[in-house]
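Priority: low. Protein: DNA-binding transcriptional regulator, Lrp family. Input follows.
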Amino acid sequence: MPPGPDRLDATDARLVQALTDDPRATVMALSQSLGLARNTVQARLARLESSGVLAPFASRVRPEALGYRLSAYVTVQVVQRSLEEVAAALAALPEVLEVTALSGAADLLVRVVAVDADDLWRLTEQVLALRGVQRTDTALALRRYVDHRVDPLLKRAAGERPPAG
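Result:
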């Protein structure tokens, strides 16, 4: 599949990987380390940012640093044809970090954070009270074994081979 506005080619992948390794790298430093013209790096970065390929910087902030020590996943069953309205209402809640539509018994998977158990209770009650929500089920996240990552995919896209073994 050829590169498009939302698909990285090998050079884009190398550029994003270099930014992942050193998020504060300057355009000039990236240019030198990748062997690309400064204007090429600048143009590619601008395209990656404007097309939404690069996530906003705020996505790197850990909720724990803001006092939200509990993380949970709430599955939500929604009245038919209310999915968009419920998703919009969830997006209005500051403690909701992600909302993903699912196939299967649950309609939405909602990643939430809370200060403590009482705060999580308040939040899940608030979700259940939303118009269009039929049922919720909450699972407390105990430990994260693999953080969100795309580095292995970037390496593959850049043409790097995985280590043997």
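Residues 63-141 form a domain with the Alpha-Beta Plaits fold (CATH 3.30.70.920). The first helix runs from residue 10 to 21.
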